[in-house]
Amino acid sequence: MYELDMLLHGAQALLNQPMALLLALFGVTLGIIIGALPGLTATMGVAILLPFTFGMDPLSGLLMISGVFFGGIYGGSVTAILLKIPGTPAAAATAIDGYELTKKGQAGIALGTATFSSFLGGTASVFVLIFLAPVLARFALEFSASESFALAVFGLSIIASISGVSVIKGLISGFLGLLLATVGLDPMGGFPRYTGGYTELFNVPFIPVMIGLFAAAEAFKSLEDPQVRAGMAAALDRIIPPWHIFRRQLGNIARSSGLGIVIGMIPGAGADIAAFVAYNEAKRFSKTPENYGKGELGAVAACESGANGCTGGALLTMLTLGIPGDAVTAVMLGALTLQGLQPGPLLFKDHADLVFTLFAGMLVCYVFMLVVGLGSLRFMGRILQMPKSVLTPCILALCIVGTYAINNSMFDIWIMLAAGVVGYFMQKWDFPASPVVLALIMGPMAEANFRRALSLSSGSYDFLYTRPITAVLLTIAILTLMLPLLRRLWAQRSTGGPSTINPAAGSSRMGTPE
Amino acid sequence: MSNAPAPGGKAGLRPQDRLATLVIAALVMAVAIAAIIVAGDFPPTMLETDVGPARFPIIFAVALLVLCAILVFNTLRAPAAPPDDPAQVGPKASYGTVAIGIVATAVCLYAMEFVGYAIATPIYLFGLMWLMGRRNLIANAAIAAVLTALIYAAFAYALSVPLPVGSLFE
User: Fold this and answer.
1) What is this structure's pTM?
2) CB-based contact (8 Å) between A230 and chain B?
3) What is the pLDDT of residues A45-54, one digit of tens each?
């Protein structure tokens, strides 16, 4: 088979370039660190390293950047699981169940599962990139503004799944997030909406809000605890999950990786969307969906394999069509161009040796990610053993510095603090924070693409039902939104009385068991 | 610890939870109404085929009003919860500490604009550790200094991300 032959030749060529392998290892390690630190993203890491690639050979430079990309997506999960600080937007989905697992004393298994799931999802996506790139590239071209709008609406419908017990409170959080997402420049006309004259609000302050709602709110909550000297649970026990437990996640990982690959191929949709969609589908197909949100290992596996599955998909569209799927691949596109390589169909023809050596190197990057990831987990786990009286101030300092790192703006830090205070009160009365984050990601995408699609269809709304992919996604979105409500009504009829879950009541964490 | 009331067969709301939920719903409705009023001043669109900058904010705000109305209705209808069993009530939460911590963070941010990261952060860390019950002043000072230096090294040196210098030193 042509691709297999080329891949083997590429692997052979890679072994003759130890510097490229070393730079790939450096890139992965740096990516994991950057991903773990709040406020720093894979995009920032790639952008910082780009100038250093000018003097390198193309393979070394591209492998280093790929390493940062892959490591950065994974790295966000570590702090999300241990401290409920999503290092990257994609890790916000992992934090939902990952941190609950840490509270249950299962941080080691959660981290190990996240690492293996990231490895499997990412590796699968690179294999798809290698063997199916030309075929799948045609699918990416089918996506126009209306399909992107429908995908965003589908993403928003996931709010019903991550709302916990009270769907009403979850929807309120979600629509608040949608309203917040309209702050800034209007996507079509450029009119500043709700900015109050502050130019800092021209763009949605997504990351400061995310850091505030998750990390700062959790830190403020720790201040409540009178027993502040006690550290959290004991040291991490086993990190490698038992085979009989991990084996049950393989189907989930395969499905989530597939979703991640497809979503990664769509321009404008990245690992954050893939993680939430994978979470939702894992919950839909799970035999114990009621455990999601309370510390379910399948949720962590789904989010991580979905997010890392996105990497190959995003690279696929960039390499085959020259269309960057997200900010990271846009920077990589720049790196390729600087090296004299033009992405597109001719890249595979004119530079096949280099491309397949690069693919072999990407597979090695994921092996490095697995090794470095597992190797660093014990060290990361020592964070758990710090007393809260030291850990909490450290977390707040990281929130401040991480937020400042985004735009060098003190205004962003004030937004982070405000979000932290709001997030603290939200969690006190069971208004979930995840729907706000989801809405901030999907809201702008939904509005901009809807208005674009409307313009493209000359003001007619028929694009909502005449385009097959759009119609299918919107139908699934409606079903996803209605399903939890229909389940409750069905449960009510079956028991012959009011539902055991009161939409106004909120969490089921307290109270005597039935 | 969540303030969520008991679920299931013992579903019900404590008076403070009922009041808190109603207050939150009222605040959200006020935000939604304000958003609708402000959106009324947005200019109409220049494109015939566009819905304009006001449409989506108004849709979201109206949805919020409807959802909050449902929440208020459900909250007023929910039965009262039985009184808390003193044996089952956990340790009293220290809300004063939370309030002081939030104010301390705000003061740190305000000070950082003038004196920069290197001065504001160790003082803030020291204060928070003391607030959380650590009384060993020398150890606190050492930990605060080390953490400040580590974060500085990671961001400013390793990742070339500049940290606030402060207007007094610029």
Assistant:
1) 0.80
2) no
3) 887 787 778 7
